[in-house]
Write a structure and sequence with these properties.
The protein is an alpha+beta fold. It has two helices and three strands.
Amino acid sequence: MKIVNYSYERVSSREEYNPKTDTLTEYYNMVTTITFGNGDKVSVSCPEEKADQYTGFYTAVAKYAMGGNNTVNNEAEYWIKQKPIKDMREYLKKQNEIAAEKERKQVEAGKAKKNAIKREARKRKFEYEAAVLANEKYGVPVNFEVVNNV
């Protein structure tokens, strides 16, 4: 990629009439034009207030390297604006999934605790009913405890 010609010039872009001052204001763009060894010519423009000669040069070379058209602009739009938004959405989605999973585990832990309490209550109820039955049939007191003396 050999550059054979380069220019950076001020070009009138538009005129606007201001009715308050009864004047015509002319706005300018700075246009960078590069001609390459194979005859391809690339131009980029920028409003005069924002223009920078180096940026114009680099943008023209990048535009040529990317195949002209709006490929450079499209890539810049994707990587500078769209990709960060997409990444943030994915990050937030993952954070929401993590939070939902944490909440689900807490709910499961609560259910497991309630089930353990219910099991213990059923066990105690069974033991109490067995003690009452033993009292009724065999005369064993309900609060009887076996003590092992060896």
